[in-house]
Predict the structure.
Amino acid sequence: MNIILRTNATQVYRFLSIIQKHLPTDQSLKGKRILDCGAGGELPPLALFASNGFDAVGIDISVDQIEASQKFAKEHDLNIALSQGDMRKLPFADETFDYVYEHFSLCHLNKEDTQHAVNEMYRVLKKGGLCFIGVISEDTWPKSLFGEEKANGKYVMQQGTEETTHYIYSDIETNSLVSKWKVLEKEKVSKYLHVLASKTSLESWNKCYDNKLASSLKEWSSRYSERDDFFKYVHSYYFLKKE
């Protein structure tokens, strides 16, 4: 169990707390079906769901990531059903799951495909079921952390011959994304990048001048001592219910 709890699980625990809060007193979690969209990796969140009695099912578009999750599940004697699949076209019947979970997978889809994926999560969720999703907020700064902006909200990071794409959302866009759901809770979570801020020289800071945050370069330069408050990843998280 201690090994399982070392997974990157903060949002899993938050979702579990929401699930417990809304679980009828005459029901238990044992046997409740949960789907993780983007379930691959060496430390799968599904491990925590499975260890809490859920019937855990996961899909990932990457075969390598699925194999990594399967290895972890086998090593820890966990019963997790993992398969290759695309969240934009989930291979499950309507109203199959009690819960759906997604974390840091939607951010790689373009905005149209993200809407398709969220609609698919809605489709496979039972009436009254709960869902957790997250997207990168436009409050992230600097957005160049995700590479060069190619289009509105689309950022591409070039690493050798490999390209990684992330999509960043405004509050208006995220609210539209979940418009058919009942929003139980919404959170914005910031991860401050203190090391990066401490290594940023005044010259580099001035090159990052953002006219949305300061009215002039002079004002921006004067805020160099405050830079620790600027460098941050920000995610918008939604806890949703299908009514």
